[in-house]
Design a protein that fits this description.
By secondary structure, the chain is an alpha+beta fold. The chain has helices at about 45-55, 70-75, 100-110, 115-125, 135-140, 155, 175-185, 205, 225-230, 255-265, 290-295, 300-310, 320-330, 385-390; strands spanning about 5-10, 20, 30, 40, 85-90, 95-100, 145-150, 210, 235-245, 280-285, 315, 340, 350, 360-365, 375. It has two domains: about 1-110, no CATH class; about 130-380, no CATH class. A hairpin with a 4-residue loop joins strand 5 and strand 6.
Amino acid sequence: MTIELIRPGSKPETSESKPLISRDCGPEGCEVDWLASRRHETDLDVDSFNAFAMQQGWGDGLPLVPPTESRVRAFLAQNDRYPDEVIAHLPPTQVECTVEKVVINAVMAGAPPAALELIIAAIASVADTDFELYGVNTTTAPVYPAFVVNGPVRDELDIPYGYGCFGGVATEAVAIGRAVRLVMRNITGQIPGKTSQTTFGSPGRVAGIVVGEWEERSPWAPLAERRAGISGNAVTSFGTMGTMNIIDTTSHSALDFLEMIGKSVAYPGCNCFSGAVPFGEMMIALNPICAEIVGREMPAMEDVQEALWKFASVDADFLNRLHRDQLEQQGRVREDGRVYMTPEPKDMLVFVAGGLGGLHATGLHTFGTSLSQTRAIASPIPAGEAQAAE
């Protein structure tokens, strides 16, 4: 599937046209025309364009911003990437995902130009072989990538990490997540009933999840630093089945809170206990109040993960006999007679986010064979400094 670039029809342009600058012709640069996507003539009023886009198969059911040449060039001109740069080959189609195609989808989603490097890092992370994007895109499950952002870029792009951060707060993070989802649809070719066999799908397959970590309220190092040693701007991708709320207004100690959280996420029907899934991860967001209580007693994240891991297990006899027998044959039933959600405590991924209104946690269950990936987010080089940097 190719991404098409829309040429204005009878209505005038409404966005400012800016030249795309290449800096390989000298310090001042020069205008180039590297836009390779095929143009289409269409009316640009909202109703007409969106009807046309849906006919072409580009849409997700919500209104799209027409990706006119002017808008695409303006978006590129505010960044430091060549449009023909290949970011990845994304399954199942294995089509080249170029910067130009990313930008076209970002424009349609309404994402800000300043978010390009975050979007590129997010796409690069899911393109990693260990993320197993082919399975994520084609499976019967409702899985989609969720992204946790670290570093100053959270505030620069208004990525939410407080009240309503997983959905409902009005920020451009929604458009950023939607841009990635449109890439998944239009470039990788994730089409339900055709290339994707998702049984029910999920609301998250429209805008995904783009959430920040509230690092300033966390008693532990940021997620990206703990996972990959990256300080500053970074994004961690996680193939999730959705969000699960866990409330505990009764507990007082760290261990009590972690017991409630661990036992809540360990339900028999989640993919981590499926005989068809050989391994999995679990992601848990603690709100700052809960994190403060836990952190006072457990300043080492490894202790938090180990406690969650022990509680996030079930007695093998609790499972249906056929399920139990299958897991026993796979060696999943441990000597203590329990089945654990993840192979090791380190696979319980914890970060801090959410509002201060109550003692809540959010669980994000894994698809299974998709392993989370962390990538640094590049900082665009100002035009005046680009030549010296090269």
